[in-house]
Amino acid sequence: MMIETLLPMWTDVVWQATAVALAALTVALAARHVPAAVRQGILAVALLKFLAPPFVYLPGGLFALLPRPSAAVAIDAGGRSLPGGAEFSLVPLLVGLYLVGVALVICFAIVSAVRIRRLNRRALRPSDAIRRMAAHIGNRVGLRRRVEIGISDEVDSPIAIGVVKPRVLIPSALLDSLDRPALRAVIAHELAHHRRYHLMWAWVRVAACAVWWWHPAAWMVARRLRHVQEELCDDDVIRAGVMDPDAYCDVLIRTAAVNAASGLSVAFGDRRHPLAERVERLLGARGSARVRPLIARTVTAVLAIALLPGARSDVATTARGDASPDVAVLTSVPLPAVSEPAVARPMPATPVAHRVTPDGAQPSFDDVADSAVSAVTDAVDRAFDRVVLCVRSDRRSAAVR
């Protein structure tokens, strides 16, 4: 019975999240001329759709306007008969396999977090000149928090770490190969990640991929969102006046060359996406496309209100307990008419026992409870007798005909 109740809701979650994810990916890939801030909002809503509860209802939700399926769907729990007469169900096996996948993704995230924490502890303190330069660049990109800079020999590319205690780790090999303007661009890019709180979205991506580890669309949305965030930070570096687009593309290529010489990944922590796409975007004069933050936030809020609620209006009403389908069905069925020959004999009313307390005192809780139980029992007995009389009258009418 629980499976029959949860499976339709789970089916709605799957197809709704899949539809939103495919639409967001299509927009993010096909409409690359759209500002990165807008594409980030679209992909963020698609990622949150995977984590939105299926019973959330809002009148303005798009999925709340969909009609309820009229035909009931037969649900097979996967039960199979065994030679000994026992039944074998696939549901426990599938649930166990799902939990194993979730545990593996969470363990991988924990291992990565522990590794980053260890790198953070081993990082060296930079010089005063680099710290002053980082503070000045942070002001230019609009950063309002204090971010520490660390130098590490164990990282292959600059990375932004820490949600509570933000920090930027820079490879020591990169300090020796880049000049001061290029180093300013690298630090500005990582500080832009902290300004936009991309580290918090990293944990949202982990949560979505852990819950939906079996769904390719969840991984694709998380990956594309990470890439769009890299593009957004590239735009912040250029808009802040830290470096012009041509020189910044040269910094990206030089940083990638340093990592390639050591057999490591590409620049700025963007390990999963080709660097050529970012360079082509910047050189194609699309990297400076700008939109007001209020417009980007409004688009994100409207999409969230329209797409995140997944429950239909009738399902939400039933979930809130405003109406019960079983009671509605029973009350809508008229009682069978009783033929005249079958006269119902009056049922004697069972007297309800009342306890009289001495000295006119108020009845205790036990007395009130006993009276209530007796009244409910009498009402149930009378209702049952009426149903029996109706059935007998129907049988007699059928026999006469």
Structure description:
With 401 residues, the protein is mainly α. It has a domain at 334-400. Helix content is 60%, strand content 4%. The strands form two sheets. The chain has a three-stranded mixed beta sheet with strand order 3-5-4, with helices on both faces. The protein has a two-stranded antiparallel ribbon with strand order 1-2. A hairpin with a 5-residue loop joins strand 4 and strand 5. The protein is elongated and about 105 Å long.
Question: Which characteristics define this entry?
Answer:
401 residues, mainly alpha, elongated, 60% helix
Number of strands: 5
Task: Give, in order, the helices and strands.
Answer: HHEEHHEEEHHHHHHHHHH
How does the major sheet shape up? 3 strands, mixed
Mean of residue pLDDT? 78
In short:
With 401 residues, this protein is mostly helical.
Task: Please render the helix and strand layout as text.
Elements (H helix, E strand, L loop, with lengths): L1 H29 L5 H14 L30 E2 L5 E2 L2 H32 L5 H14 L6 E5 L6 E3 L5 E5 H6 L2 H16 L2 H14 L4 H24 L5 H17 L13 H9 L9 H15 L5 H8 L4 H8 L32 H36 L1
Parallel strand pairs: 3-5
Antiparallel strand pairs: 1-2, 4-5
